[in-house]
Amino acid sequence: MGVTRKVLKEGNGTDKPKKGDVVTIEYTGNLYDESKADNDYRGTQFDSSVGRGDFKTQIGVGKVIRGWDEGVMEMSLGEKSVLTISGYGSTLTSPSSTPQTVANGPSRDYAYGDG
Q1: Rounded Cα gap, residues 58 and 7, in angstroms
Q2: Which of 3, 72, 82, 103 has the maximum number of C-beta atoms within 10 A of its C-beta?
Q3: Rounded CA gap, 17 and 54, in Å?
Q4: Strands 22-25 and 107-112
Q5: Of 90, 100, 101, 96, which is closest to residue 113 (Cα–Cα)?
């Protein structure tokens, strides 16, 4: 399994979610397509949270695919990235960003989106 992250928009470089933090992710999942290099190898879309409402989960604790656990925890506030994740029969890409963060008790609530 491997995860690569292509940063499309730099974040603030400091605010990153920690293991166990609750994150809100807006994402679009695409199959990896070698012929789509000009579109970050994003092929056929297979899933998207856009328009369905917030997807909230703990990060770094195995509640989502390992590629998200690894890749999202490396992103900082305001960042927009394409995560390319291998090891699921076929590689997928998932653009994500970090538009805001909200304090929530002892842990932090992070919001991620691709819009």
Answers
A1: 22
A2: 72
A3: 17
A4: parallel
A5: 96
- Measured between alpha carbons, how far is 92 from 82 in angstroms, rounded to an integer? 10
Tokens of 43: 């092929």
Structure tokens at 26: 């807006």
Starting at the edge strand that comes first in sequence, how are the strands of the sheet with 22-25 ordered? 55-58, 22-25, 107-112, 100-104
70 Rama sector, left if φ>0, alpha if ψ -120 to 50, beta otherwise: alpha
